[in-house]
Amino acid sequence: MSPTNIHKAAQLLNHVGSTFDSQVTIMPSGRRAYTVYVAEFSQETVDKYTKLINRGIEGQWLSWGNDPTRVFRVVEPSLPFDIPKVCISWVLKQLAGSTYDEEIDTSQQTEEPLYCLLVVQGKNARERSKVVVARSLEDATTSILHEAINGYSVVFMGALLRSDMNELFSDAKSCIFSLKKLPDVAALNAFSGSKEAQTFQQIGIIC
Questions:
Q1: Dihedral in degrees, nearest 10, Cα atoms 105, 192, 144, 134
Q2: What is the pLDDT of residue 102?
Q3: Consecutive H or E run containing 122
Q4: Distances (CA, A) of 177 to 1, 54, 195
Q5: What sign results for the dihedral spanned by CA atoms 28, 156, 98, 162?
Q6: What SS3 class is residue 132?
Q7: Which of the residues 9, 83, 188, 204 has an alpha carbon 20 to 30 A from that of 91?
Q8: CA angle 41, 57, 69 (to 5 degrees)
Q9: CA-CA distance, 139 to 129, in Å (whole number)?
């Protein structure tokens, strides 16, 4: 596999929609190399990071360390990788079409924006992780490249409706939400605020 250069954050979109589990090694001139994987995440993977996400803290490294109650606390940054891995999914292109546009299939658009959620890890992956919330496509792609260039892997990516993301990260949150993987934006729109979502304290996510 020959090295490839990405000069702009938006060029990450060129790799979305290719065969799942394909990969390409990116070697920006004079900077750290990193590997990009295209993947679709399972409900099992969503469940793996649900408790971390429910902590409701973005942009800081978290760990439960030796705490038997498994409560996440803010810690020092993880050690960076020599060649980090970036897992991206089809939701990046959904961010591009999340605002209202008459030329976009109405079943795949929403009147409120989609926010992107990233889980970032370094060499201490089992001990500490970081959640990044991106509020636009530009924000998401820039955050991905920023983490990769600094040696950190993006191990999970998903998109939620803005209102659901705000509720998930609200200081006034009164419950622990479970995240339910949904197939597309239409399902995300239909599920938000539904009886099922309210009864089982669930928030929909596409990934």
A1: 100
A2: 41
A3: none
A4: 41, 7, 14
A5: negative
A6: strand
A7: 83
A8: 85
A9: 19
- What does the longest C-alpha to C-alpha distance in the chain come to? 53
**In angstroms, rounded to a whole number, what is the distance separating the alpha carbons of residues 85 and 1?**
15
> What span, in angstroms and rounded, lies between the C-alpha atoms of 99 and 113?
6
Tokens standing for residue 1: 């596999």
CB of 75 within 8 A of CB of 65? yes
- Rounded Cα–Cα distance for residues 134 and 79 (Å): 23
Task: State what percent of residues in the chain have pLDDT above 90.
Answer: 48
CA-to-CA distance for 58 and 170, rounded, in angstroms? 11
The predicted structure's pLDDT at residue 53: 93
> Could you report the per-residue pLDDT of 15-72, keeping only the tens digit for each?
555 544 445 555 555 567 888 888 889 999 999 999 999 988 999 999 976 665 667 8
Residue 12 corresponds to which amino acid? Answer: L
Q: How many residues does the chain have?
A: 207
Distance CA 147, CA 158 (A): 16
Q: Rg of the chain over CA atoms, in angstroms?
A: 17
Q: Which amino acid is at 119?
A: V
DSSP 144-173: HHHHHHTT-EEEEEEEEEHHHHHHHT-TT-
